[in-house]
Specification:
By secondary structure, the chain is an alpha/beta fold. It is 25% helix and 17% strand. It has 16 helices and 17 strands. It comes from Lupinus luteus.
Length: 614
């Protein structure tokens, strides 16, 4: 035990000691705040923003323009990061989860081999995918709808295979897309005009559409000028690069297939869906595929079938099938549609149209067995079943199950029914409106950093962690479209995104995305790396971002400064030019923004440093 009696000298030193300790604590606190703000020398990529400038978040010395120069980067003075080398040229069009060699090891039954089959961790590429020699920034929209550079997608097979159907033509150094399709060789416009005679396409009632087996997505391409946003998908198969062509045109599309697992979309997502000679066996598997369309089709939505078996009396010989077989197939489809509570609205020539009833009280006959309604949106890698997704409950025959939507564009900022009904935990009408205000502010800041945002230079945009879709809603215009990705480990808000009249998809960012390389112009990631930092390798996510980003495309990553410091350490070893800037509210906010541009480099260029690393 120490003595309780202190000497005079000890009493004199005690206030001084306390003062020194307090001073040191204050100094350490201020130093930590200064370093965390991004203004200190935590990282050479951090910007020293002049607080007196009115546009304090404009990023200096970072060019977003397309110029295709090959000027070498000046290396930072810190110890060099791990350098990610270029992949071998054979990986130029690498799609991690749809590669042919791996696909062929799976059963062909029910298209299982065309579903997603991702490489295990030890087989993932840790290199950067090169662009093909001669790669050029795509034509700006709307010219890109009709033309694409051959060097960007150097595959001519469809120009021969689909020549009569006017899918695509090769002219000089470009592809031309006349707007034709298998069931509309005279052009998508005339086809859509016929649909619009039955379906209210012109007034904003129909905004979101699904094209199953899309080809080069001409249906979706021509719907865009009518303010309808189509999600198109097709498998990676012998119709070489069809989805790649679609995205090169500036049209939303993903690699996908009707197989054994659910489509990666929420229930009640689409106002309209179509199959134009998609060759999906709608009458097979006890109607399972048609039941999946019913799941994603909004009450009151429309389904279009053009192609077999419709108009079988005219085409049975061309299709090399018997009259009896085709007649029986159409009868089965009619029966299934009626059991799903769909009403046939139109059949003329090659086209038949059904409309889904607005609620279960309107159904004329008993439906097949019902699925578990609690799991209607839990679909990632989940097996499809031959059951009907039940309608949400209603109190009257006139009420739209799940809630009635305003016409677009009013529905973009109206409170979505899922929020109004309290179906999204932690989100209220008020917090939804606050989120909209926040993203308008964020987008305004982004445009100061990069003045090309909101122009046709960035046509294909991805939001990797979309939340309620606020970023896409703030950016909404005819000049661009946004693929709103809701991570499978995040709150399930994708239904809200669709209710706003936007499109998106579920995805797990520990795996490759269902697209070709070089298909997006601008990638936005808000809080994504904080979400995944304890789940998978951050380098894998960054390498995947590089794969799907076009040369000279831009990236915006918004996250906590500690996480961004980990990200920038990896980015230093990539072929990106990157800078970190402060949050819009100032340097004391721990959230920062990393802005980057992917350098232009191609196969065989001095920057490729080609490697066979896998």
């Amino acid at each position: 035990m120490g003595s309780k009696n202190n000497t005079p000298s000890q009493r004199a030193r005690r206030p001084l000691s306390i003062f020194v300790v307090i001073s040191l604590c204050c100094f350490c606190y201020l130093l930590g705040a200064w370093r965390s703000s991004g203004s200190g020398k935590v990282d050479k990529l951090a910007l020293n923003v002049n607080k007196d400038m009115p546009d304090c978040n404009i990023v200096p010395n970072l060019s977003f323009e397309s110029h295709h120069n090959l000027v070498e980067n000046i290396e930072p003075s810190e110890p060099k990061a791990k350098v990610l080398k270029a992949c071998d040229v054979k990986y130029t069009d690498y799609t991690p989860c749809q590669e042919q060699d791996r696909a062929m090891t799976f059963p062909r039954e029910n298209m299982i081999y065309r579903e997603r089959h991702c490489p295990p961790q030890e087989e993932k590429l840790h290199c950067l995918i090169p662009a093909p020699k001669g790669y050029t920034t795509p034509f700006p929209w709307p010219k890109s709808r009709d033309y694409a550079y051959y060097a960007n997608v150097p595959y001519k097979s469809l120009t021969v295979e689909k020549a009569v159907q006017n899918w695509v033509q090769f002219q000089g150094n470009v592809f031309k897309f006349p707007g034709g399709g298998t069931m509309f060789p005279q052009g998508a416009d005339a086809y859509i005009d016929e649909l619009a005679s039955v379906i209210p396409i012109a007034d904003g009632t129909v905004r979101t559409a699904l094209d199953t087996g899309c080809g080069v997505a001409s249906w979706g391409a021509y719907l865009l000028k009518r303010n309808v946003l189509a999600m198109s998908f097709a498998p990676k198969d012998n119709h070489e690069a069809q989805v790649q062509f679609a995205l090169e045109r500036g049209v939303p599309a993903v690699i996908g297939v009707f197989g054994t697992i659910h489509l990666p979309y929420p229930s009640r997502a689409f106002d309209m869906a179509q199959c134009s000679r998609c060759l999906i066996p709608w009458a097979g598997n006890d109607g399972m595929y048609l039941m999946e369309v019913d799941r994603v089709l909004r009450p009151g939505g429309y389904w279009i079938l053009s192609g077999p078996p419709i108009n079988w009396k005219t085409y049975y010989q061309t299709w090399q099938r018997s009259k009896e077989d085709l007649k029986a197939e159409q009868r089965k489809i009619e029966e299934l549609a009626e059991s799903l509570c769909w009403e046939k609205k139109y059949e003329k020539g090659d086209i038949a149209i059904w409309r889904k009833k607005i609620n279960a009280k309107s159904c004329l006959r008993k439906s097949p067995k019902f699925c578990d309604s609690d799991n209607a949106d839990d679909v990632w890698y989940k097996k499809m079943e031959d059951c009907k997704t039940p309608y949400p409950e209603v109190t009257s025959k006139s009420e739209v199950a799940g809630g009635e939507l305003k016409k677009f564009p009013a529905r973009l900022f109206a409170v979505p029914p899922r929020i109004a009904k309290g179906n999204i935990p932690g989100v209220t009408a008020d917090s939804y409106q606050e989120d909209n205000k926040l993203w308008k502010m964020h987008l305004s800041a982004y445009k100061k950093m990069n003045r090309l945002i909101g122009t046709t230079r960035y046509r294909n945009v991805m939001d990797m962690n979309a939340g309620l879709g606020g970023f896409a809603a703030a950016l909404e215009s005819q000049k661009s479209w946004v693929m709103n990705v809701v991570p499978t480990i995040a709150d399930n808000t994708l239904g809200v995104v669709y209710e706003r009249g936007l499109i998106g998809i579920y995805h797990d960012w520990c795996e490759g995305f269902s697209t070709y390389p070089r298909t997006y112009d601008l990638i936005h990631a808000n809080g994504l790396f904080s979400l995944y930092q304890d789940t998978c390798n951050l380098e894998d996510i960054l390498v995947e971002m590089d794969r799907i980003l076009r040369p000279e495309g831009a990236i915006i990553i918004r996250d906590e400064v500690d996480v961004l410091n980990k990200v920038t350490k990896i980015v230093r070893g990539m072929k990106w030019e990157a800078k970190m800037v402060d949050h819009e509210d100032g340097p004391l906010v721990p959230q920062k923004i990393l802005v980057a541009v992917k350098e232009y480099w191609t196969v065989g260029s001095s920057k490729s440093n080609s490697s066979n690393e896998e």
